[in-house]
């Protein structure tokens, strides 16, 4: 009987793409990992509320490196309307589609791991910024951009922003998600 030698190359060849794609998040310098969180509520395409699985703490999480259209008429929607020249009513419809996508892949009750860069932990509104790793090992942030339901944005900088910008360009070129309706947002 012959045994396959255990080498890094053999392990990489046998590891799925999903595992490889999420591994880069855990290698970010100064990353803080928080496990045992459950999605309590999805507010929109780039913000969720999570609660501790074995505790009572809840917190609002803003996803790193992306922006999704708003789902409510607000100051931010007026700003987005002025910048994009897209009517607020259409932006709202796109925001609702983005929200629906998140609810399909990360519905309330989904267990997640939160990864936060120590040098960039909070947004302007003092919400925690995070990469959200799903039970499948995929990153919610990346899936949203990859499938065209959010755009890469430097509003909340993250180490993987250049990667997200490339993924966003590909989604726009392939007319995925929101880009199947409009050219930019």
From TrEMBL:
Signal peptide: none
Protein name: Thermonuclease family protein
Xref: SUPFAM superfamilies: Staphylococcal nuclease (SSF50199)
PROSITE patterns: TNASE_3
InterPro entries in the record: SNase_OB-fold_sf (IPR035437), Staphylococal_nuclease_OB-fold (IPR016071)
Record domain TNase-like: where: 33-181
A Pfam family the protein falls into: SNase
């Amino acid at each position: 009987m012959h045994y396959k030698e255990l080498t890094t190359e053999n392990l990489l060849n046998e590891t799925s793409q999903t595992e490889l794609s999420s591994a880069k998040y855990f290698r970010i310098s100064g990353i803080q990992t928080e496990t045992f969180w459950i999605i309590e509520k999805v507010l929109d395409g780039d913000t969720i509320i999570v609660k501790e699985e074995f505790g009572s703490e809840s917190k609002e999480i803003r996803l790193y490196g992306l922006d999704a259209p708003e789902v409510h008429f607000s100051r931010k929607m007026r700003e987005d309307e002025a910048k994009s020249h897209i009517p607020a009513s259409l932006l709202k419809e796109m925001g609702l589609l983005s929200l629906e996508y998140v609810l399909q892949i990360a519905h309330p009750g989904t267990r997640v791991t939160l990864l936060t860069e120590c040098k960039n932990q909070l947004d302007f509104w003092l919400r925690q910024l995070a990469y959200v790793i799903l039970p499948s090992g995929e990153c919610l942030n990346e899936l949203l951009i990859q499938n065209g339901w959010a755009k890469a944005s430097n509003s909340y900088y993250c180490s993987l922003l250049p990667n997200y910008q490339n993924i966003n360009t590909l989604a726009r070129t392939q007319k995925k998600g929101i880009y199947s309706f409009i050219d930019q947002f």
